[in-house]
Structure prediction request, 483 residues.
Amino acid sequence: MYWYFGDVTVVRLLVQRGMAAIYLIAFLVVLRQFKPLLGEHGLLPVPEYLRGVRFANAPGLFAWKYSDRLLDAVGWTGTIVSACALLGFTERGPIWVSITAWLVLWFLYLSVVNAGNRFYGFGWESMLIEAGFFTAFLGPRWVAPSVLPVLILRWMLFRTELGAGLIKLRHDQCWRDLTCMYYHYETQPLPNPLSWYFHRLPKPVHRFSALFSHFVQVLAPFGLFAPQPVSAICGGFCILQQLILIVSGNYSWLNWLTVVLGFTALSDQSLGWHTAGALAPRPLWFEVLLWAVALATVLMSIQPALNLISRQQAMNRSYNRWHLVNSYGAFGSVSKERYELVIQGTDDAVVTAATQWREYEFRAKPGDPMRRPPQIAPWHLRLDWLVWFIPFEITVTPRGIRASHYDVWFLRFIQRLLTSDRAILRLMGSNPFAGTPPARIRAVLFLYRYTTPEEKRASGAWWYRREVGVYLPPVGIEDLQQV
Prediction:
């Protein structure tokens, strides 16, 4: 097998350190954001969400009991263990220490995601859970690595890339006619400082970019299981595409996690490394465990594999409550226009035509046209993301806008702003009401587009926006008492 796969000692090190860094960020996000959004007094309280839910349906610590104190314990334990893994401490001891450390990270984050409701409904949550579980079987640095867990993670990379490629070809004409990149950088969830410049690239470059995406995500994955150096070359294409996405947008840790998975397609020889000194052979019990995990992976792969060839391909779906061996995919369709909600408040108890409105800013979501889009990833701003999704539920017509309903969490969010709730305000950008809370708040829908180079030179603005309509009419705290 050596001639086919090459050595993976350094590859194992890269995967373990990369995974530890991502888990560290994920648990820091838990400590920073979970309680204001999902805690006992959050926008979608976990006790309310998990009422009557059994452990068998949503495994995790919080299925038995949730408290903010337990959440802190989970967050700090995950932070400490992932930091130890990042520093290599977990890989210096016996095999069982390495396995246990990674399974602790896996189970703690599984607990968070299964209690996280809509704020943890992103595809990269399941990706992190799955990758963390199989990283547990790579083994410590003093033991000769097995190619089995590397191949399992490579299979995950295959499903991630091919799933994303097929969902694009099946769901949006602009991917088939190579025009999706005309819009992508302008309408992506959270643009970064370079997104404006990527959007202004010539159209032939955008068309080539879409074609390159199809090559990387539809054709290259089949080379991931070829002999070296073919596998390393295909993995290199996957990594290159993810690096381009990293410098052109903010997608939490999705792209970074895919880069780490891309390492599994490499070999020590392809990286120019040669392991010095013999490593200890794997004990029999560990070898048996690895083959048992591999067999279980094969069985769990049946449904995701069938999903890949299905015309009704599902995107980001888990087939078991442990979030193992899932189906993945991203950007099956690309928005052609960008609508954004802008939250505005006023001190006026009675709204008139003369009322002056002041805007709240989010940390990364577009608001003030003069503000340059920030670099956030791999940090994850969960509130910004969920507010970004709301315009997709709004119908825009020539006569105005129409909303069928308001999400409970959004009304509670407005309620918190009306009381100047410190926990929620810490998740946002500038607060225009630093002294006393506003008397009224409304939400206005705007159509955004990037400024042209001429407009940007003249005004310094990154965005041009036009008001479309009022999504949430002015409300006071008395209007939201029963939310």
Remarks:
- The CA atoms of residues 50 and 69 lie 17 Å apart.
- The radius of gyration is 24 Å.
- The mean pLDDT is 95.
